[in-house]
Amino acid sequence: MTPKIARFLAQHPATPCLVLDIDRVEANFRALMHALPQARIYYAVKANPAAPVLERLVGLGSQFDAASFEEVSACLAAGAAPEAISFGNTIKKVSAIAAAHQAGVSLFAFDSIEELEKLARHAPGARVYCRIRVENEGADWPLSRKFGTTVESARALMLRAGEMGLDPYGLSFHVGSQQTTTAAYELAVARVAMLFTDLRDAGVNIRMMNLGGGFPVRYRDEVPEIDRFGDAIMDAMTAHFGNALPEMLIEPGRFIVGDAGVIAAEVVLVSRRDAGDPLRWVYLDIGRFGGLAETEGEAIKYRFTTPHDGGPTGPVAIAGPTCDGADILYEKTPYRMPLALTSGDRVELHATGAYVTTYASQRFNGFAPLAEHYV
Ligand SMILES: *Cc1c(COP(=O)(O)O)cnc(C)c1O
């Protein structure tokens, strides 16, 4: 926790709330820029679209990966130039394509002939890039099946794009979010680089490789340092392209904002489902529907602190406050919490700056959405 966040929490703001340190966002952006100086950073807005985050990133010269016209608008409102925005969702409403094109956005993703036809019609002349499906092994929050196409079909689509009056600008992939292995990038680069060279040989004026996001944040477990990802990516790129490197883009979301945020929550109840059961259930005033959607399948394992840390602990299951059976954060993952923990205690959930505020439901059981404080 940063000193700014600690100071803010010392004032006991109402829970549940997210407190996010914008200076940490800046530090993360700079660390990534340092790890991969050859790449242009397109922040994936969905990770946390709050205006203070976007505004700080605009000031740092970041560019933006938007998934909807609403996200495009949020970037423009934060001061981003339309040329700094990539419309990176491969599934876009026609009205959103037209509105983004009208606003001056000229970079769009696709992974199907149907989407390419929509782009040719509603964003004529735009730069387009095709998303390739790659392995998501090693990712705690995979994205694989829903997006991307095969190398063979990407080749045909990129050739078609030029014939349709679009600019066949590049290729992209995403190795899955919270990707904990550098090998995932190496494998993906190898796969996509081959197609890149092949398309160049076929006369396509392809210039860009978009390496997506996925860079991990430290939750309970250690993850490799960001420099290790940078080195692995640059080694793979130079192995395949030598000195003729294409333009490189990255789309980090989680890495930029994840460890900048802390959630403060209140313990609503600590109880045992069965008398004598060593397992206690800890119910918090935030759960799956309060924004902790990435606990689905216990995929993302947040780190907790409590006022009784250091004292004796016992096994716990951790759940949210709603009347829904799915509102369990952790039941299989072995979590332990202090035996002294009791209702009314405040706990902190660390590295919760990414993918939380946007997942919060509106008023399930009447609970207000997560409060957000940017400091
Ligand atoms: C979600 C997403 C990202 C960001 O992924 P992280 O794992 O948060 O870095 C980047 N690009 C695309 C296309 C995405 O959908």
Give a short synopsis of this structure.
This protein has helices spanning 3-9, 22-35, 51-59, 69-77, 94-102, 113-122, 151-163, 183-201, 226-241, 254-257, and strands at residues 17-20, 39-44, 63-66, 85-87, 107-110, 127-131, 139-141, 167-172, 177-179, 208-210, 247-250, 261-271, 280-284, 303-305, 313-319, 328-338, 346-350, 371-374. The chain has 375 residues and is an alpha/beta fold.
Overview of the structural elements:
This protein has 375 residues and is of the alpha/beta class. It folds into two domains: 49-252, Alanine racemase (TIM Barrel), CATH 3.20.20; 259-374, Lyase, Ornithine Decarboxylase, Chain A, domain 1 (Beta Barrel), CATH 2.40.37.10. The chain is 29% helix and 24% strand. It has ten helices and 18 strands. It has helices spanning 3-9, 22-35, 51-59, 69-77, 94-102, 113-122, 151-163, 183-201, 226-241, 254-257; strands at residues 17-20, 39-44, 63-66, 85-87, 107-110, 127-131, 139-141, 167-172, 177-179, 208-210, 247-250, 261-271, 280-284, 303-305, 313-319, 328-338, 346-350, 371-374. Strands 1, 12, 13, 14, 15, 16, 17 and 18 form an eight-stranded mixed sheet that branches. It is elongated, with a radius of gyration of 22 Å. Bound molecules: pyridoxal-5'-phosphate. Pyridoxal-5'-phosphate (PLP) is lined by residues 44, 46-47, 65, 88, 174, 177, 212-215, 251-255.
